[in-house]
Amino acid sequence: MRLVVQRVKGAHVEIEKKTVGSVGVGLLVLVGVEEGDGQEDVDYCVEKTAHLRIFEDEAGKMNRSVMDVGGGVLAVSQFTLHGDVRRGRRPSFIKAARPETATALYDAYCEGLRAQGLHVETGVFQADMQVYLCNDGPVTLLVDSRRCF
Fold this sequence. Notes:
With 149 residues, the chain is of the alpha/beta class.
């Protein structure tokens, strides 16, 4: 499972000019599920997302998590995170999980964050979405469960 985690002052996702998910201060997380991912990958990503210390404390140091600051998470599915661009000019998405698998793991990730007590909003899986954000910092991190075990 691969995540792009962005600290935001606010973010929302629209489908056909209608907002379907939004958060104020918190995280925008783009979520890509890879073929072969399972619950262990979900658990790792939930833990990282909930507890990454990327929000500033009183001294200006990144010492607080999204939970510490009472922020929300906008999780948006994005299979293109598993696009392979090493050969040619057109990305290959062969490593991205099939939609039925990816949907289940994406939903499990969102539920895992909710179980941590976080407010979670989402986009719509496989929809054509427009994502808007005010990146704070900017702070943007990559999390890849395959690089941790």
